[in-house]
Amino acid sequence: MVPSKRMRAPTEDSDLGTVSVEAARSELRQAHSKRQRLSGAPGTGDSIVSDDEESLDGYQYNGHEDHPNGVRHDDYDITRDAGFEDLDYEEQDDVRATQLVARHMQQFKENRPADQGIIEEVTCINFMCHTKLKVKLGPLINFIIGHNGSGKSAVLTALTLCLGVKATSTNRGGSLKSFIKEGQDQARVIVKIKNEGDNSYQPEVYGSSISVERHFNQSGTSGFKIKNSEDKIMSTKRAELEDITDFFGFQLDNPMNVLTQDMARQFLSNSTPELKYKFFIRGTQLEQLDRDYKLFADLLEATDVKLHSRARDVEVLERKKKEAERRKNLADRSKTFQNKVNHYTRMHAWAQVEEQEKHRNALARSVEACEQKVQQVTAEVETASQAYEEANRQWEVAGGALNELQEAVKPSQDQLTEEKGFFDTNKDQLLKSISDQRQIGEDLKGAKKLAANITKSIEQERQRLEGTNGGDLARKLSELEDAKVAAEQAKNRLEAHGTEIRQLELDRARADDAVEKAKPAVREARDAVRKSEDLLQQLQQNRGQQLAAYHRNMPHLLRAIQNDTRFSQKPVGPVGQHVRLLKPEWSSILETTFGGMLEAFLVVSKRDQSILSELMRKNQCESQIYIGDAQPIDVSHAQPDPAVDTIMRVIEIDNDLVRNQLIINQAIEQT
């Protein structure tokens, strides 16, 4: 008859129920004739438990007097199982084993807690009637007491469920979700296991304790978390939990270890002798041993069948063995021929080695000749480099001298410009005065001519008036007076202009003297500037023809580029070969600004870049490589005022690809 399911008490609540854990202490220590099984821990409240793992403390088992060969064994299991030689004396062995156990049980021994496999703590969260309950257990025997319905058996149920027992095996519910407290969505149970000593389970992984946590919810999902002593999750697999329980020997399905209320009730009240016997063989693991023995019997039977079926295979293998021995003998006889073949093979190999050594020596002589040539070319390059450095030094000295001459000429040029301006002003005033004088002279001639005409007209009119004595005499006299006044004014203006002309002539004479005095200094400065410019141009031309300013292997690289036909378009470079300085005073600034850009090369595609990089590595002349486009870039809208010098305005570039790259990288149109 299946036992009925235990109903929850009406007051299943962790706040009302009281659960206490107290350590038990034996009172049988003094007068009991049997071995003391319990020992207390005075003053600490620790639990106590029996110790089944003590040795026999030196007790020796003597073999049977009538045992074959008089063999003596100290270990009953070895005596019984070693080759199954003592099965004929099974009854005598059982009697002596019983005596051994009886003597062992009568010995007094103090109980000591084990270093591993001890349940230290059980925690229930939203489990059955408990909202949050933590039960700390002692290292030996523990008693849990409390009122009915306070959740005592819930602790045992939590322990078994957390260590992997199925929900149906607890006789408390059909599924895990039935153990979740009413009104909650999920629950957790946690069991902490002691893991110390020499026989601990993977101490390098888990440390001094192992915490097993099982969580489940109302949807039916559940899982495990196995943590180390530092509360770090080490595994979530059920197989790992089974390994731990097997290692510590937790037989949770053994009623001798875990006896639930329902199973105890059934065992005490309703069980028959047959059921009690089954309970006995299950609790003593005899049932498991019987299954193991049957399994071994099946394996032995299968092994016998396999051995019988392989008997014919032995005959076949025997024939194969004889055939192999025959072939071995043939191989031994042919060993002499093989040795000759190996000998001639080695001779052939050494002949090839000798031929390769000759070829190697020829190559070594060729390499030596090439090295001598390289040394010669290197010496020539060093000589050219020294010549270039000397020319560059002279160019810098000439540039410094030119700057000094320009600074020395600058005051004379300023004075010349000032005197020239003063001379031009006086010259303009003189020309204007001469023009006014010429105009006044013409006006004076016209006035004199007019006066003569008027005088002649007056004379004629007078004669006519005298002849006719007409009424226009007064008008003619008035016109005559006006003409006299105009003639007087013209005469005064002529005298005033004559005075101004003399002053202007004096100013022009002074300006001519100043110009004459400044001419030698200006002529000397112009000669110095012309000589410096010629020297500078000559140095620039000489420098443009030299490659010694670049890497010492630059000529080899340029020849390799010229001879290589794989380029879609020949690389342009080095960049400095396509740039000419128009204003020498900018030289130091531009060299600092451009830096390594003057040694760079320009290509138009990624493939050309890869080919050029390969040539640079071969010629040991590494430089920067830029990919660009020869289509000219229009920078007219980005240039500053024409009066401002930029890098683009003080240099001359003969290649559009170089111009575009300098605009992109150096912003020469604005700098």
Q: Unreliable runs, pLDDT <50, ≥5 residues?
A: 1-74
User: N-to-C SSE series?
Assistant: EHHEEEHEHEEEHHHHHHHHEHEHEHEH
Structure summary, number of beta strands: 12
Strands in their spatial order, largest beta sheet? 3-2-5-6-7-8
Provide the helix percentage.
55-70%
Describe this structure in words.
The protein has helices at residues 76-81, 90-106, 152-162, 203-206, 238-248, 261-270, 273-283, 286-309, 311-333, 335-468, 473-544, 554-563, 587-594, 606-619, 647-650, 656-666; strands at 19-23, 116-127, 130-136, 142-146, 186-195, 209-217, 222-227, 233-235, 579-581, 601-603, 625-627, 651-653. By secondary structure, it is α+β, with helices and mostly antiparallel strands. A hairpin with a 5-residue loop joins β7 and β8 (233-235). 14% of the residues are buried. Residues 1-74 have low confidence and may be disordered.
Short description:
This protein is α+β, with helices and mostly antiparallel strands. It has 16 helices and 12 strands.
Question: Can you lay out the helices and strands and say which pair or pack?
Answer:
Blueprint: E1 19-23, H1 76-81, H2 90-106, E2 116-127, E3 130-136, E4 142-146, H3 152-162, E5 186-195, H4 203-206, E6 209-217, E7 222-227, E8 233-235, H5 238-248, H6 261-270, H7 273-283, H8 286-309, H9 311-333, H10 335-468, H11 473-544, H12 554-563, E9 579-581, H13 587-594, E10 601-603, H14 606-619, E11 625-627, H15 647-650, E12 651-653, H16 656-666
